[in-house]
């Protein structure tokens, strides 16, 4: 039991290390080598094929009445989510993106209250307010700073957070009813069709002749690492730890992004990233962290 718990935490650590590194690794090839929509096309197709290979060993049928919800989840959790994220990352700082993403628990709480009618306690309301202020300040600060930040990019990342948060609320009953692999495989399939109008024109315009070994390595990292392996790690971990424990690991992503941006800026001379870290962004990050902490905090049981 203890060994399984250790392995679960190592899996969560691995998944969030991948996510944290993804911000600056993926941004490194956009848009000079490949456009965001073309990148998403490759990501969804590549990871979708890998998921379907595993799904072929899981004999589980989907009830026809659940197909509309799977289609909606494909639109929100794959197509909208990934298109908004990569287009946002293409326009803004990896630091800003990694901070805004930590607001997912705040978004999930909001949609849970609206859709599932979950009760919002005073602590959660306070957390929602504080975290929301941090996210709004960071988004609006995008065009008032040097570096690679932008208001539009930050807004896209925030909308990505909203679509993913809504997806997490809507997919919850499906995850209870079916194998997670069954759900994610169908979600990726439906998401693929929503992504086609955006991805196909961009992929046809992509000049693969200018791809270097580094470009192919980045694309492989995003498909196999960020999408496929990170999801597997999270699924494995959820067998041994609570979802709240899994969610708490999202705090690692800004820390990893801060470290990698610093390495790129000062170790490899990428001067465009040198001004991405400042006191205001750190303050916004702390506000979001405090907000998520208050939301995640379990109320004391009265005796």
Kindly describe this structure.
- With 303 residues, the protein is mainly α.
- It has one domain (2-296).
- Helices cover 75% and strands 0% of the residues.
- The protein contains 12 helices and no strands.
- The longest helix has 27 residues, at 151-177.
- The model has no long low-confidence stretch (mean pLDDT 83).
How can the largest sheet be summarized?
none
Q: Shape from CA axes?
A: globular
Strand content: under 5%
Number of domains: 1
Instruction: Give the mean pLDDT.
Output: 83
Query: Helix amount, in percent?
Result: over 70%
Number of strands: 0
Distance between the termini: 31 Å
Topology as a string of helices (H) and strands (E): HHHHHHHHHHHH
Number of helices: 12
pLDDT < 50 runs, ≥5 residues? none
Look at the helices and sheets and give the structural class.
mainly alpha
Radius of gyration: 19 Å
